[in-house]
Design a protein that fits this description.
The protein has 301 residues and is of the alpha/beta class. It is built from 14 helices and eight strands. It is globular and about 60 Å long.
Length: 301
């Protein structure tokens, strides 16, 4: 089974190196985009981390959180990866880590071959203004403060009011932007990419809309999902450990080690080596088969 890992990286070069080493297997192709604004991640250093996998590195876009640039980037990586056949395409960031060994990840996707791992928000969420109307000033609002921000918000509210009066009611579906999808769905998405990008251009967090809207509205649920979202903050449909109850999302700590390794999830998010280095190293050691002894402990020996 062949995997493509689509990684969007913007910080923490040492943590990125750990992630790449954990994904370094001959069955994996890695498509890594480094934020054009980041100057701390050295491409030569990154390339040295990968011995067996096929690594493709891009530094094409300046990425802004929840901005359209993020949607363009992830769509670009998927299109690049689709030039070669892969059984699954896993979209992750450098804040993610595998929670299982490569062999166990392969086994899991073999057992669930043909299933799509996509997350959907509930029906109540899709009735919010951000899913129903175009928000032309969303990005400027996010980047401004004080009186300018308040002025732009008033303009945006007026924009929504006008759309309501003239009967514009867009139907979007929303969910987490991260996914694991099959080659058939990936190729289908890429065939509709240009139209999809136009459709979500003036939405907020379009990266959390584009795949879900494609699946529900264009394919008409043609593909088979691994599972349905059961409740708010349920990410079992992605088989990923993500906690939005304790954070936005919560950054995993060393005290969460047992919870993570005993989780059925194959990937975990969110990790930050600047917040808790120990958990990153403990998970890396567990996944790579080095037991519970951590990198920090080995450094002191």
């Amino acid at each position: 089974m062949k995997f493509a890992y689509l990684i969007m990286a913007h910080n923490n070069p040492e943590q990125l190196k750990i992630l790449l080493k954990l994904l370094d297997h001959k069955e994996n192709d890695i498509y890594l985009h480094i934020d054009k604004r980041n100057h701390d991640i050295s491409v030569p250093d990154i390339v040295k981390c990968v011995k067996s996998a096929s690594l493709h590195v891009y530094r094409k876009y300046k990425i802004y959180h929840a901005g359209y640039s993020q949607t363009i980037c992830q769509s670009y990586l998927l299109e690049e990866a689709c030039k070669t056949y892969h059984d699954y395409y896993h979209l992750i960031s450098n804040s993610d880590l595998p929670l299982k060994s490569h062999a166990r990840i392969l086994q899991f996707f073999e057992e669930n071959k043909g299933k799509e791992f996509i997350h959907f928000e509930g029906k109540d969420y899709t009735e919010k203004d951000i899913c129903k109307y175009y928000l032309f000033l969303y990005f400027p609002v996010c980047k401004t403060h004080g009186m300018v921000k308040r002025f732009l918000i008033r303009l945006e509210n007026k924009n929504i009011s006008i759309q309501q009066k003239i009967g514009i009611h867009r139907k979007f579906y929303c969910g987490a932007n991260w996914y694991s999808i099959t080659h058939l769905l990936a190729k289908d998405f890429c065939a509709h990419k240009r139209d999809l990008l136009r459709r979500v251009r003036w939405t907020s967090s379009s990266d959390e809309i584009i795949m879900q809207t494609f699946f529900r509205d264009i394919t008409k649920n043609h593909y088979s999902l691994y599972s349905q979202t059961a409740s708010d903050y349920d990410y079992s449909s992605l088989n990923r450990a993500i906690d939005w109850y304790r954070g936005t999302p919560y950054v995993w700590k060393a005290r969460d080690y047992e919870e993570l390794i005993n989780s059925p999830a194959v990937f975990g998010r969110k990790f930050d080596i600047t917040v808790d280095e120990k958990i990153v190293q403990e998970i890396a050691d567990y996944v790579s088969g080095n037991g519970k002894q951590t990198y920090l402990e080995r450094k002191t020996e």
